[in-house]
Amino acid sequence: MVKLMSAKEIFQREKEVIKREVEKIKKEGYTPGLAAVITSDDPLDLETARFFVSKKREDCREVGIYFEVHEMLNKPQGEVLNLMEKLNKRDDISGIIFQKPLAKFLDEDKIFSSLDPTKDVDGLTPYNKGKLSTHYDFSKDLLPCTAAGIVELLSYYDVKLEGLDVVIVGRSDLVGRPLRIMLEDLDATVTCLHRKSKNILDKISRADMIVCAAGRPPELYSQDSFKLYGDMVKEGCIVINVGIRIHPESKKMYFDVDFDSVAKKAKYITPNLGGVGLMTRLRLLKNIVISSKLQLEKVKP
Question: Would 30-123 and 146-278 be classified into the same CATH topology?
């Protein structure tokens, strides 16, 4: 029988731990704060971004973290960088997150190179990417939230990764690339698939674990779309769903995994809701605590 890897229990339990951590930081005279920035005005991206940002606001409020959002829709890069500079300098903002994808005309390298690495709660600055690629402390460093959340969820369910053949559909800086490193460090053999990959279905069919992080469901995208169905995987595999998009008009959610058909063959599977999304939110809160401690050291007399 398939094991459902729900994150609801660990999310609620760990959120209470984070709440106590935030209270300790406040007693030292500093209030953690998160600034979220949205830049893409593409209707699909914007609807999904606003949904995720609303969850971040909700989580921050519950654990006592100050939150603000800046919608820089279709704003020129100069204005975005000016906002970044102000947020970098503000003592009351301990974490900054740019909701991806960014507006297509923005230079991502320039944006993230300008972000204070100690406030980079998504682990996307060159400094934090470098730490991930060389030597990192899983509990103390600012790591990409979704990738770290997936690793923590697998550990919670005691999934043994050593020797597994893992396929990740997608190679983004948020999920595919950092998750490949983390899983390889746990002795899995990892392949990242992308739109130019050959023999995609064959690679997926032979994988022990499939992580679906394309975020281009066929219901919404006519080109380069992806969805995992039960006839694409082998019996006893592990399936992790990451991708989600929300239709801007109907508000209906679409996912990278056809849960019902895949669950009939998988040994472990995450729910489309209540799985990786909660773990991403949990890791973000943990990263804000980490960044807040770094900012506290700066403002101490």
Answer: yes
**Cβ contacts of 92 within 8 Å, gap of 6 or more:** 31, 33, 66
Overall pTM > 0.90: yes
pLDDT bracket for residue 301 (50, 70, 90)? low
DSSP 8-state class, residue 71 = E
The token duo for 54 is 């609303």
Tell me the CATH class for 146-278. Answer: alpha beta
**Under CATH, what is the fold of the domain 30-123?**
Rossmann fold (3.40.50)
Query: CA dihedral defined by 260, 282, 184, 124, rounded to 10 degrees?
Result: 120
pLDDT at 298: 81
Could you state, in order of their start, the residue ranges of all structural domains in the chain?
30-123, 146-278
Q: What would the mean pLDDT of 271-299 be, rounded to a whole number?
A: 95
Which pairs from 152-158 meet CB under 8 Å and 24+ separation?
A: 152/10, 152/279, 152/282, 152/283, 153/5, 153/7, 153/10, 153/270, 153/275, 153/276, 153/279, 154/5, 156/5, 156/7, 156/10, 157/3, 157/5, 157/268
Q: Is the pLDDT of residue 76 over 90?
A: yes
